[in-house]
Specification:
alpha+beta; seven-stranded antiparallel sheet; 7 strands
Length: about 260
């Protein structure tokens, strides 16, 4: 049996012990000898507003197929034991994840215990030493330390600072991280000064972007635009070959009612 860890908010611990992990897709990481690497996702979860985190350790049959890869890249399907071995053999496994396409019943759980909030990376692997982004997508209101960091960076409490033409230019950048940052900022702006009709057409071509993370962020932020194109765009993204993009698009369509 292969051993994996899933990080979850501590308030869910009692329910997890009773019912297991009940989502249709479980994101997890193999148990490795290095504790901070095994629990690397805990700090990112804290940044999203969950003050305390638990590590849920569970088993998966060695031959059961799972998806494995970097969270920002393509995944490959391998047996669970082979996926764990692949991650174990990497020089730098930060940012990698395993996706199990089923819930985890309580009988497969081995341990549920609290994880220190300082374990892991924030924003992205290797981000330490870089200037953080203070846009509302990366630094949501009410998040841990958000107002303090926003004040230190001199960012407006109301949202993105960069002008609209600058953000549009960023969408043409070759770096997917820059594209997703700009897209998230534009999505926030559209709640305020960008409510004009037709603005979604500026970002709609990103539905064909080769990076699935760009398409996923597009699906997340598309409802921010009040545009006749929104439903059609999300319907197209709901048929995307990447499951994360499809899931984001379906959730956004549900939000639109």
């Amino acid at each position: 049996m292969a051993l994996f860890v899933h990080c979850a908010p501590e308030p869910l611990a009692r329910r997890i012990r009773r019912a297991g992990l009940t989502t249709a897709r479980t994101h997890c990481f193999p148990v490795l000898p290095v504790y901070p690497v095994t629990h690397q996702w805990a700090r990112e979860l804290r940044r999203r507003g969950h003050r305390t985190t638990v590590a849920v350790t569970f088993t998966v049959p060695d031959t059961e197929p799972v998806e494995v890869g970097h969270y920002h890249g393509p995944k490959q399907t391998l047996p669970a034991s082979a996926a764990a071995g692949l991650v174990r053999g990497l020089d730098d496994p930060l940012g990698y994840e395993v996706v199990l396409h089923r819930p985890v019943p309580p009988g497969d759980l081995r341990r549920v215990r609290r994880v220190p909030g300082t374990v892991g990376w924030r924003y992205r692997p290797g981000e330490h030493g870089r200037r953080p982004c203070a846009c509302p997508a990366c630094l949501p209101r009410g998040g841990y330390g958000a107002e303090r960091l926003r004040a230190r960076l001199g960012e407006s409490r109301r949202g993105a600072r960069r002008p609209y033409p600058v953000l549009l230019a960023e969408l043409r950048a070759g770096d997917p991280d820059r594209v997703t940052d700009a897209l998230a900022e534009l999505g926030n702006w559209s709640y305020g000064r960008l409510r004009g009709r037709g603005r979604l057409a500026d970002v709609a071509p990103l539905a064909a972007h080769p990076d699935p993370e760009v398409r996923r962020v597009l699906a997340d932020v598309a409802p921010a635009w009040r545009d006749p194109l929104t439903v059609a765009l999300l319907t197209a993204l709901a048929a995307d070959p990447d499951p994360d993009v499809r899931e984001a698009a379906e959730e956004s369509l549900a939000d639109l009612g």
